[in-house]
Amino acid sequence: MTVRPCLSLIVPVSNEEAAIARFLERAGPSVAEALTMIDADAQAEWLFVNDGSTDGTEAVIAGRAARDQTIRLVNLSRRFGKEAALAAGLDHAAGDAVIPIDVDLQDPPEVIPKMVRAWLDGAQVVNAHRTDRSSDSPVKRVSAQLFYRLYNRLADHPIPENVGDFRLMDREAVDVVRRLGEQSRFNKGLFSWVGFRVATVDYVREERSVGTSKWAGWRLWNFAIDGIVASSTVPLRIWTYLGALIALGSFGYAAFLVMYTLITGGDAPGFASIMVAVLFLGGLNMLALGILGEYVGRIATEVRGRPLYIVASKVGFDEEPD
């Protein structure tokens, strides 16, 4: 009978063939240290989620799993994106504590023992806070800061700044997140929404060890929009207030024009003033429709009820996790 692991590491991968060996080599000692803190018989689970890789990532992980029963692999049928891959990892992780971590080693595994210590001290969610992001480009640092500020002003439940997916979650918190049925996933927001007892450990974000980031500017922009729309209705409420103000102003201006025409007979209408009004109101309407479209599009996604991801195959699973 397979012993239930105490600690699960969820590692989403997409075309990371060259990073697997280096990640396991560096993370192994830190995970071993964390396990000794938990119990003498504690075991770990290395759960890789292959998000549609087209290189040798699947073969490398499968080969490792054949030699090490603590390594497991979930292959998705195509690339669904990191948020879906992380959700697949949460669904298949069996540990009492779960830690999502990237294979590129920007989030150093040496932080894991500190997270486990905070968990053993009673925390159910342990956030890893980036105190130094100098390894990121200036554009990414500035855009990240602006995103956190904008998000926390708009969202119903703010998220901690400079905290990514790298964190520890107790089994109770994981089970709650798994029950959340959103198709448009913003995991940072979901992790914050569930609450529970939270602790924080600090670390310095490192340079990527190998390969290149999959998060280009356009993808980050879309990710930011998904996060705000999925976590807040404030943008819709803003347009309710703005529309009311414009309507009141229009009614007042219309009343002024009627009185002005009755008293003075009126002036010949000017082309410039008409065009300014038309373009201004037309631009506002198009912007408002765009925001409405973002929400309607996500409503359509939820109504379809399609699965968040599709599993093509698994490696290293003796039985389905509870």
Give me the secondary-structure topology:
Layout: E1 7-13, H1 20-38, E2 44-50, H2 57-67, E3 71-76, H3 82-92, E4 97-100, H4 112-120, E5 125-132, H5 138-154, E6 163-170, H6 171-179, H7 187-193, E7 198-204, H8 217-231, H9 234-264, H10 271-304, E8 311-315
Parallel strand pairs: 1-2, 1-4, 2-3, 5-7
Antiparallel strand pairs: 3-8, 4-6, 5-6
3D architecture notes:
This protein is of the alpha/beta class. It is 51% helix and 16% strand. The protein contains ten helices and eight strands. Strands 7-5-6-4-1-2-3-8 form an eight-stranded mixed beta sheet, with helices on both faces. It is elongated and about 95 Å long. The mean pLDDT is 75.
Number of strands: 8
Report the end-to-end length measured between terminal Cα atoms. 15 Å
Stretches with pLDDT under 50, minimum 5 residues: none
Q: How do the SSEs run, as a string of H and E?
A: EHEHEHEHEHEHHEHHHE
> What order do the strands of the largest sheet run in, or round the barrel if closed?
7-5-6-4-1-2-3-8
* Helix proportion: 40-55%
- Cα Rg: 25 Å
> What average pLDDT do the residues reach?
75
Q: Structural class of the secondary structure composition?
A: alpha/beta
- Figure out the total of helices: 10
Give the overall shape, derived from the CA principal axes: elongated
- Biggest sheet statistics: 8 strands, mixed
Give the strand content.
Answer: 15-25%
